[in-house]
# Entry
Amino acid sequence: MIRKVLTLTVLGAALAVTACAPATRFEWGTYEQALYAYTQNPESRSVYKTSLEQAIERGQKRDAVAPGMHAELGYLYLEEGDSAAALQHFQQERALFPESARFMDRAISQIEPSKAIAGGQN
# Structure
């Protein structure tokens, strides 16, 4: 009897500890699955784009947009010929993740050289 109680107590404690696991810092949504599907079947581009947009939207609600999400979405817009949307996402990526400044400044300057942020290029 004591053995059953002890076993149940240990299992209950283990379950309680796993329920306390921290949530991930960033919102990734279905990015990984959508990216894989897109690389396997480029016709699923709209699903991939929607996945990025949804992950960004959810991430903005809790200030947890994952690094690279805006850059990736901006690149998709750039491929579609929507330079204004691409520029906006590149600038948002740069603002959220200052460590990406050199890369984003270069991408921004390729779209509109006058929009590059001074001092960010070397």
Summary: The chain has six helices and no strands. The two ends are 72 Å apart (CA to CA). Helices lie at 2-19, 31-40, 45-61, 69-80, 83-96, 101-111.
